[in-house]
Known about the structure:
- By secondary structure, this protein is of the alpha/beta class.
- The chain folds into 2 domains: 2-172, HUPs (Rossmann fold), CATH 3.40.50; 185-280, Pantoate--beta-alanine Ligase, Chain: A,domain 2, CATH 3.30.1300.10.
- It is built from 8 helices and 9 strands.
- The chain has helices at 7-19, 35-47, 75-84, 116-119, 123-138, 150-162, 192-213, 219-232, and strands spanning 2-4, 24-29, 50-55, 89-91, 142-146, 168-172, 237-244, 262-270, 273-281.
- The strands form 2 sheets. A 6-stranded parallel sheet has the order 1-4-3-2-5-6, sandwiched between helices. Strands 7-8-9 form a 3-stranded antiparallel sheet, with helices on one face.
- Helix 1 (7-19) crosses helix 5 (123-138), helix 5 (123-138) crosses helix 6 and helix 7 (192-213) packs antiparallel against helix 8 (219-232).
- The protein is globular.
Amino acid sequence: MEVFHTAAEMLAWTRARRAEGRRIGFVPTMGALHEGHASLLREARNRADAVVLSIYVNPTQFGPNEDFAKYPRTWESDLAMAAAEGVVAVFAPTDGFYPSGYRTVVRVPEWNSVLEGEIRPGHFDGVASVVAKLFHAVDPDVAVFGQKDAQQALLIRRMVRDLDFGLQLVVAPTVREHDGLALSSRNRYLSPEQRRRALVLSRALRASVAAWDSGCRNPSEILSLGRRELELDPPDSTDYFTLLDPDTLRVLDTDPVRAEPCILVAAGRYGATRLIDNAVLGEVW
């Protein structure tokens, strides 16, 4: 397994592999890898001949009240997982990934004013910009993202379409622990009691999904069942529990009838730890 630290080195490697007729798969991460990331690597391996993993804690997607310095860095265990999952190249950009005087921003306006974009100002500008830079450096044939960060996956889908990135985008299902909690690097910060309480997020999602599966298409009815479950053991604070149009990010809570596919998204806080989760209703990806 090779490790590259500059975009020029990474791109040269990709071009050499492509000249050999190999299809390049790519999974971008900020490290702190867990089984959810491993599932993305396996998905990429199933769709490509050579898999590249990036590990880069991107400073531009952290807001003013989010501690970039405290984001977990687990380099040695990340490399061990990458090797175990058949990764052949790791791209770990150095501080020079953003050159001195960097000013360019990739922005999809709708994403900055809805839910995660409103709660975390500038976050999605940072995500879109760094992913665009990573796509240029790795130049993959297929890139795999996780459904768990649904708004992020939808953002990247829009960017790939609008800017004509010549790659296949795959969104893989959320991986959950045995009791339903969505895997996240943030779970490590939960106390045992907070972790127990956090299970209500997945229970609430399942209640709403059951309504959809039974044929209900009225957003208020779908949401009421999930919110009722959420209220039985609520987070310390709930940022949102709502339905989104996957193409426009329009909030659908007051739509009279919603026959088209949509995404149910949830976010709650347990002490200083913020968790997100979602469920897809219909064929979105």
